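FORM 7B: Structural annotation worksheet

SECTION A. Query
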Amino acid sequence: KISRRLLSMRTTTGFTFGTHGGRAGLKTSSSSSSSSSLVRQFLPSSLVRFLDARDNNNNNTFDSSSSRFPRRGRNCALFSTNAAGNDSRQQQQQQQHQPITNEVKSKDAASSSLWWWQTDPMFAPYLGGAPEHKRGYDPSLQSAYDELKIPLGSGESRVRDAYLNQIMAHHPDAAGSKKKLLKAQQAYETIAKDFWRHDSGCASMRKKIDQALKNTTTETQSYDPTKRTIFVSLRVYRDLEAQHTLRSLFENAKDPSRVFVGICWQYKTETTTEVSSKTGERERCVCRLHYAVNRITAKAEEEVAKMKGEQDPEKYLTVDVRKVQLEVQEYEDEKERKAHNARAIFDGVKNEKEKEWLENVRETHVNWDSSDGPCYSRHLADRLWGGESHILYVDAKTAFDADRDETLFRELEEAEKDNEADHDNDNNGVVLTAHPLGYDLETSPVLNPETYETDHHVFIYGKRIFPSKEERNAPAMLTAHAFGKHFPHFFASKLHAKPERSLKSPFVSNLFTFGPSEAFIRDCPSDVHAPFLYLGEEVSTSIKLFTKNWDARTPPIVPLLHCHDPQHRRECFLEDRRKGRLLYASIYDAGYGTPQAVNRRTRLNEYSCRRIFQIVCDGAVSEDAAGGKVIVRDDDKFNIGNGRRAKEFESFSGVSIREKRITERAKTAGLEREKFEKNEKRKCKFLVPIKTISGTSQVKEFLYASAVNDAF
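SECTION B. Predicted structure
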């Protein structure tokens, strides 16, 4: 609505619209005071008060000759609602189709705005003050809730489930209506925006504006809006190692005060119950969500197999063993809840240092069975972003080097210089990415009480075995070697030696990506319309960043490690849905859930793959090429950009999504083969499972092994 009204005024106010990295932006073409006043009527009231106070303050708090101003892209002050000089306007015109990365030398332009999101139409209309209504109860949302066929005020999980039901019912490939599907998408985005307004991330953005407003009316500046900060986006699915990752984030930061974390915890938040076949009431039951309980269950199965004569196996399983199982399960439930709660991880009462860390953690909690893949969990984590200048994506099992924050900023600055030299000053934005090398978890043997021999091993979370310095002599780049049904499988290829400068990377890794927040929050947000997408997220992110003029580069130093424990995770994924009367059923009968649940996940995965396929193929694919109806809206904010074309990405990366073709360039990231280690020389022998619809596959593949050429 704001964009349409501004567009209708541009001939009279002197304001015109441009695009930055494929997204709409506002640029000034007149210095008239009337133009500024007209635009201010569309800004939040707190921001207007701040601008008025700044303009009326002769002794401006921010001295443009000595202060560092906020950046957008690499090294640039944010665009202004006040007009700058002719030189500044020429720079803005040159940056219409690329991220803003040049230093704007005009003092007026530099001092006029603090953050890019203050005037971004995606955020600005909602930052004027706290929401007037409770979460989900705004009367203006009634039509959106009606579209999803749920009552006003329904919670996050119910809204998400209702939206997925609408996809199943109205998807054109299931003889549904494309029009109704798009209406359901818009309804879900509307409700999700209201949820975001009530999240701690949006509250942090409002707080920043209020603090900046106070700084303009006081002589002392207690709040520095130009400070570089890092938002770490974490997605955790029932992982006890994540608590140690969270602690490592702050312990190994040179300046923990500039590190903020947004965590989407997905774990067992509720007691497992089922309807009793005898009483008809819900009662506690045993599940297979915990390894300790599963060991008891396995031993019970062995004992039942030995029973003969008058022994009653049913009584043994449902009475004697059940009592022990429930006791151990209750203990494991409590341990899992504590490991997925920042307030339980950090001592915010006695330890002052951890109390400060806790203030920088924002979290959201989701029951494990409400999870529908990586895109949705990343969306929930990113909603906790509070206006930080940079963003870091890592996995839940990550160990950080000392002074990691300083290393990241230094490597990013060097990569930006390398990028300028490689592209002849075309001023594209830069993000860092690589496939982290691995570390191991220590294990402890568990003895058989009868034979005193080792029965099995368990992981000791937090006890980490790190590779030697020689093994970390060079980073690993993401390469493509084989195609899945729709998208390529990625592998990590480790370099022989540490490169002298950062290297171009066609693909970005979910295990490590770092860059300005504009790249991911504004230009490449997580696609909420792609549930159960287990293969395709990384390639779609790579293409979106490329077409919105962001270049990915692998730095010589990657200040973190990742734990690869696929066998452990595979067991967790396959066991999750067996409980109660299905506890002793075959894993192939009950491991994936009911037939209806399996069919639902399979279809939603297929729809998501098709959607991503249509997006990354430049939106110009026919229905035959897309394998079904074209369902992407023209104004879809999750679409690719127009800074560079998808065809250019094919040439750059060596991967053609439409033709399912992988060239030599994709297998070597555009480098010579000799620069990479060969299989027999690779020392990091961790396993990485190929992801499938059920979560993981039974197929084992070495991290640095090629699926096509074993010699490479």
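SECTION C. Observations
Confidence is low (pLDDT under 50) at residues 1-43, 57-112, 218-222, 680-712. Residues 104 and 146 are 48 Å apart (CA to CA).

SECTION D. Sign-off
Analyst initials: ____
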